[in-house]
């Protein structure tokens, strides 16, 4: 039997590392920092595009649940 929270738990540690200010959300600037750390420099416009795609609540920031859903969709691409 699998745990319903398994996907969230899988990405929680990564989320906490990306959430540099510890507010429980990933901002556009934090997303840019993540991409830079992964060796993929993205400009502000592309970071906003990714945020819009991932931000289901449309509040301008990515929650752990939104991050998990986004990563689950695109992991392994």
From TrEMBL:
GO terms for molecular function: calcium ion binding. Residues 6-41 form the EF-hand domain. SUPFAM superfamilies: EF-hand (SSF47473). It comes from the Bacteria. This is Ca2+-binding EF-hand superfamily protein. It comes from Thermomonospora cellulosilytica.
